[in-house]
Amino acid sequence: MTSLQLVWFILIGVLFSGFFFLEGFDFGVGMLVKSFAKNSDERDVVIKTIGPHWDGNEVWLITAGGAMFASFPMWYATLFSGFYLILFLILAALIFRGVSFEFRANMKTDTWRSFWEWASTIGSFCAAFLFGMLFTAMIAGMPIDKNGDMTAHFGDYVNLFSLVGGVAVTVLSLVHGLNFIRLKTSGGLRDRALAWNKILYPVLFAGEVLFAVLLFFSTDFFAKKPMTTTAIVVALVIFTALAYWGVLGNHEWLSFVGSGLSLISVVVLIFNGLFPRVMIANNPANSLLIKNSSNSPYTLHLMTILTFSILPIVLIYFIWSYWVFYKRLASPKQSA
Amino acid sequence: MLNLGLDILGLARFQFGMTTVFHFFFVPFSIGLAFVVAVMETMYAIKGDEDYKKMAQFWGKMFLYSFAVGVVTGIIQEFQFGMNWSEYSRFMGDIFGAPLAIEALAAFFLESTFIGMWMFTWGRFNKWVHTLFIWLVMFGSSLSALWILAANSFMQNPLGYIINQKTGHVQMVSFGKVVGNPQLWNEFPHVIFGAFVTAAFVIAGCCAWRLLKKDHVDFYRKSLNVALVIGLIFSLGSIATGDLQSRYLINNQPMKFAAMEGLYKNSTNKGEWAAVSGFNTKQHKTTWSVDVPYVLNLLSYHKTTGTVKGMNQVNKDMHAKYDKKFGSDMNYYVPTKTLFWSFRIMSGAGALFALLAIVGLIFNRKRSQLIMKQRWFLYIMGLCLWLPFVVNTAGWFITEFGRYPWIVYGLLTIADAVSPNVSVASLLTTNIVYFAMFAIMGLVMIILCHRTLKAGPDAENTDGYSAGDTKELDPYSKGAFNHD
């Protein structure tokens, strides 16, 4: 393995971390459109918390996918063709929730507004759940042949472990979204988000513990890297505990950062366990490795230079855009 | 299982065609609208004329709808390479991934961040700064077109690579050559100008329908003027760049060029150009045609003499060149009828756009009322609102069908590129669902644009979710909900 290959493996992890951190609260807020927000005015506010941002957040996913293609095309090809149906459902979910905000705002009848509100809610739930399921299935190992073609069947990626993984990511996104709403709104919505999180966090703890137990039995993470895997799992729980403490003590920033770091811990856990592989095959001989799945040194070198010169600029205006919309949104009168 | 004669190759190709065509309804429309809206807002910034601000906001609404659909359909495009074309992804990763990643990094972040900034900050920033946001969106989306076309250009005309002897995959040796590919620099301006034309004539068409109803006459006449000036400049630009591009094909992709002109046999020195013809594609023959002398040579070489290779000759040449590697049973003929008619639709429409723009600008002169009296003209203009979408599709039909049987010209066939592990059932399901989703989104798009148009420029902003800053409510979004 060359150092450039290692850099790109880490970079893909960073991009997915960014995606889960940002799109995590995006998904969470999207899920809350229907049940959490009680009326049309509240929904306006809830959607507006992510209105200027969801699109840019989703670009992290597109960039992660593009970067994977540009650095590890074998990984990209195996992963995307192998998890065909899950990715297809993710796409459908992302499409429906993506257009829902703009479409809903322009619907005239309540029925159609409601339709697009459901599109946002269901789309966000499904997207978060399916991403969780996909990554959990991926680390459990899949049937992959010598050519790198994965031929997984329903039972390979839909099982207890992947379902728990899916639920865990969904709940993580949900609490992250609620923490984001606490930061961005005022009045009734802000209070309700706090109340919801007080109930959800214990559920999340239970989910995380169950996930860690299943991780032990379904993957080789603890066997191969006992120290780091344990450390990251502990970190995950600590970040979640910190966020919960922020909920109980009403420290909004602490909660938000805590739930964000929890999501990032999940990504780090996955990438740490994958290393030095990128795809885990049931037959270890067929696992895709960092060293034999990457592009040529020329392309990696080129992409490194380009990425490290463009990404800082992107981060500057990306963060600036959040700063511009930093202000809390007014709460609608009707909300209790 | 029921055998419908469907195979993964056919289904994967259909899916690529369908998703790309649908995606490309919205891409040029969005790029073009960003440009037109940016021009309008710049005029507002310069002149301080509130009409231009109203115009930017009004047409900006359509831009936002289009952008939303363009973004979400774009994700399918990126995922599709890995999902349906895994062998292609493995073969091309070294070349194709780079522009795709740069596209996301340099272009998508720019446009998606600044569209949020533009959309939600009317009145919050100095008007020049706000205008800069829409220019950045426009710049970002054009940049994304550049990078994806860089990737496409390699597929049309591979440059700057070697074949890795161990893996058999392509390997980049010169990024400069990949980006400097002449195919790209012929293709890119044509696509961008086409995008400007698309937005210009959709706006012009919308204006025409409203003028027929005598609705907001001043507003729509003013909008029409902006649209037609842009439409005229860039339809002429499209024709010029289209000419460059097609002449580039003569040597570079002679099969594509010959099919566009419907030439099975080599042309004679007289340069007879078939305005219309019938084909027998099985026997590789032209059955009848209406010929005009010299035009072919004028189009091909800008002079009256010269000859162009016909498809039969090109087919022989290609067999001589590629049989060693790909075997002698390859079929190098491209879908002739599709290319021939697509080319005529595209170039005919290009000329029509330029003509409409000139006549429209004459009728719409400031003190003239001609535009209101010449209702026939407004009807034509209104109908032509749909034409850019047909033309854009025709253009891509030529480019993509014309590289058959290659996915990467001369290096990899389409048949060898498809994912071997994806089932017919999966592909059939995704095709049906995508189709249904596109139908819904397309329908909603049309309804929303129609409604926006009917509501007119004075309607309150309905983007409920774009309202609601605590203090600095701008008048554009007032009344979306009540405040404490």
From TrEMBL, chain A:
<keyword id="KW-1003">Cell membrane</keyword>
<keyword id="KW-0472">Membrane</keyword>
<keyword id="KW-0349">Heme</keyword>
<keyword id="KW-0479">Metal-binding</keyword>
<feature type="transmembrane region" description="Helical">
    <location>
        <begin position="6"/>
        <end position="33"/>
    </location>
</feature>
<keyword id="KW-0813">Transport</keyword>
<feature type="transmembrane region" description="Helical">
    <location>
        <begin position="300"/>
        <end position="325"/>
    </location>
</feature>
<feature type="transmembrane region" description="Helical">
    <location>
        <begin position="115"/>
        <end position="140"/>
    </location>
</feature>
<protein>
    <submittedName>
        <fullName>Cytochrome d ubiquinol oxidase subunit II</fullName>
    </submittedName>
</protein>
<keyword id="KW-0812">Transmembrane</keyword>
<keyword id="KW-0249">Electron transport</keyword>
<dbReference type="Pfam" id="PF02322">
    <property type="entry name" value="Cyt_bd_oxida_II"/>
</dbReference>
<feature type="transmembrane region" description="Helical">
    <location>
        <begin position="199"/>
        <end position="217"/>
    </location>
</feature>
<feature type="transmembrane region" description="Helical">
    <location>
        <begin position="260"/>
        <end position="280"/>
    </location>
</feature>
<feature type="transmembrane region" description="Helical">
    <location>
        <begin position="83"/>
        <end position="103"/>
    </location>
</feature>
<comment type="similarity">
    <text>Belongs to the cytochrome ubiquinol oxidase subunit 2 family.</text>
</comment>
<keyword id="KW-0408">Iron</keyword>
<dbReference type="InterPro" id="IPR003317">
    <property type="entry name" value="Cyt-d_oxidase_su2"/>
</dbReference>
<feature type="transmembrane region" description="Helical">
    <location>
        <begin position="160"/>
        <end position="178"/>
    </location>
</feature>
<keyword id="KW-1133">Transmembrane helix</keyword>
<feature type="transmembrane region" description="Helical">
    <location>
        <begin position="229"/>
        <end position="248"/>
    </location>
</feature>
TrEMBL record, chain B:
<keyword id="KW-0472">Membrane</keyword>
<keyword id="KW-0813">Transport</keyword>
<keyword id="KW-0812">Transmembrane</keyword>
<feature type="transmembrane region" description="Helical">
    <location>
        <begin position="191"/>
        <end position="212"/>
    </location>
</feature>
<feature type="transmembrane region" description="Helical">
    <location>
        <begin position="376"/>
        <end position="398"/>
    </location>
</feature>
<dbReference type="InterPro" id="IPR002585">
    <property type="entry name" value="Cyt-d_ubiquinol_oxidase_su_1"/>
</dbReference>
<feature type="transmembrane region" description="Helical">
    <location>
        <begin position="339"/>
        <end position="364"/>
    </location>
</feature>
<comment type="similarity">
    <text>Belongs to the cytochrome ubiquinol oxidase subunit 1 family.</text>
</comment>
<feature type="transmembrane region" description="Helical">
    <location>
        <begin position="224"/>
        <end position="242"/>
    </location>
</feature>
<protein>
    <submittedName>
        <fullName>Cytochrome ubiquinol oxidase subunit I</fullName>
    </submittedName>
</protein>
<feature type="transmembrane region" description="Helical">
    <location>
        <begin position="132"/>
        <end position="150"/>
    </location>
</feature>
<feature type="transmembrane region" description="Helical">
    <location>
        <begin position="20"/>
        <end position="46"/>
    </location>
</feature>
<dbReference type="Pfam" id="PF01654">
    <property type="entry name" value="Cyt_bd_oxida_I"/>
</dbReference>
<feature type="transmembrane region" description="Helical">
    <location>
        <begin position="432"/>
        <end position="449"/>
    </location>
</feature>
<keyword id="KW-0479">Metal-binding</keyword>
<keyword id="KW-0408">Iron</keyword>
<feature type="transmembrane region" description="Helical">
    <location>
        <begin position="58"/>
        <end position="76"/>
    </location>
</feature>
<feature type="transmembrane region" description="Helical">
    <location>
        <begin position="96"/>
        <end position="120"/>
    </location>
</feature>
<keyword id="KW-1003">Cell membrane</keyword>
<keyword id="KW-0349">Heme</keyword>
<keyword id="KW-0249">Electron transport</keyword>
<keyword id="KW-1133">Transmembrane helix</keyword>
